[in-house]
Amino acid sequence: MEPLHALLAGAAALVAAGGGGYWWWRRRQAPGPADSASPAPSPPADHVARPAFTPSPAVSSASLAAVSSAPPAAVPASTDGMAAEKSSQVLLESQREARVLVEQARVQAQQLLRDAELQARDLAMRRREELNRELEAARAELREQERRLEKREAALEQKLRELQRKEKHLEQTREKLAERREQWEKKHHQLDELLAQQMQQLQQISGLSREGAEKLLLERLEKELAAELAERIRRHEERVREIAEQKAREILATAIQRWSAQYTSTLTVSTVDIPSDDIKGRIIGREGRNIRTFEKITGVDVIVDDTPGVVVVSAFDNVRRETARRALVRLIEDGRIHPSRIEEVVSETQAEMEKYLMELGRQAARDADVQLLHDKLIHLLGRLHFRTSYSQNVLAHSVEVAHLCGLMAGELGLNPALARRCGLLHDIGKAADHEMEGGHPKVGAELARRYGENNPDVLHAIQCHHDDITSDHIYTVLVAAADAISASRPGARRETLEKYIRWMEELEAVACSFPEVEQAFAIQAGRELRVIANAHKTTDADAARLCREIARAIEQQLDYPGEIKVTVIRETRFVDTAR
Q1: Which of 18-22, 253-257, 312-316 reaches the highest mean pLDDT?
Q2: Crossing angle of helices 440-450/456-464, nearest 10°?
Q3: Of the four listed, 48, 203, 301, 459, which is most buried by Cβ atoms within 10 Å?
Q4: Nearest to 270 by CA among 199, 218, 328
Q5: What would the mean pLDDT of 91-103 be, rounded to a whole number?
Q6: In what order do the strands lie in the sheet with 310-314?
Q7: pLDDT value at position 495?
Q8: Mean pLDDT rounded to a whole number for the chain
Q9: What pLDDT does residue 253 have?
Q10: What single DSSP character describes residue 73?
């Protein structure tokens, strides 16, 4: 409160001193005696009524004493009596106004003091209430904690009592177990004595020692277990074989479904269309020199007969035949047919044919996704385009085998790129000419080794994919399986009519060799065999046995791709006539 009291005291002093001095100065500035009759100007209403800071009683009294005791201002000697009288009146009025202001300030200070005291009391009361509320909350929390502690203590006491009860029960159980153990040990000792007595009696009765009896028992168990072990091994092998066959079927089915190819049959002759029959004479030439020159250079046979509009080019070497056909077409288009022109055109055609073979080989390698092949191997692959096996194009067959090998290798978690390489090159030996001796697997492996193919898996697959040598490489097995799949597709290979008829007759002859069979019919291109059994010589059980025996005989006596379905039909007919 001390700074407030000091501020109020300063304000009262300023009001007291400033009010009197100001109005005294205004009287000094008033006009002379002529204007003395005019009333003195009163202070402004706002100055008189303006509230001032209300000092404390002590400060107000001090300020009043200071104002009352202040000496009047000195009056100059030159001022007349009227001016002195006016100055004294102004001073008196100023003193009265100062007393009024001081009284008002004292009253206001007392009022402010009372208000401050009331506010302090209210603040103290609110603070006391807040402290009481906080104290009550703290007391409530302490009571809640005490309640929880009492509850936890009660739970702990309950657990302690439960543990004591369990310990007591456990001690009783331990005592009972000790008693039972003693009883069991006594009984065990008695049983040991009885067993020893029985063992002695058995040895006396059987005349065998303990070692001899054990040996005899082990031998008997070994024999029994040996039979059981062999049976378990056999069942396990059968189960493994079934699982392996099922997995192999799944892999082959997946590979076959994911890759299918079209086949076209290639013959050993080519025909060349001619615009008119007059061209035939020009092809033959004078005394046949043109046709002899052409056949000598190309190594093919040109057949010019009475067939209108056609000249036939025949050769077993498809590359030569294709070269001769293209050369003959160019000669016919050019119109100049004579020995020198024939030599020129055939030479150009052979050069173009070499480029065509390289392009075919590169395209096949791209189709099979096989890279880094020697140029000579690419050339041999191109020659496979003009090589057939049972009318199946060997290059298309090789590409298909490559894709099948890659698919199966992917299913088995092997290297698909290596498998495709093995499949693409497995028949490369068929592109070799007659100068190299041996079968195409051996020739193909030698050519691949000669032209930079050093991977043992690839060489082994080329040499052993026909099971000529025991296969111990997984990629060789894949190539052999893919080769069989490609060759056994319906329509992939075509045989001669005589061989087909002979195969059907052999199939029917195997079935007819059984005495219970009356007739046998091979249908669906030899994929199914229908057998008619004699109903008087067989029963239903005999028909089932006969069907199984015929199937086993076909497996042993015939070689065939895929499967053959055998169906035995036993029928009894009763016929009567109504008259």
Answers
A1: 312-316
A2: 160
A3: 459
A4: 328
A5: 90
A6: 269-273, 310-314, 301-303
A7: 52
A8: 78
A9: 60
A10: P
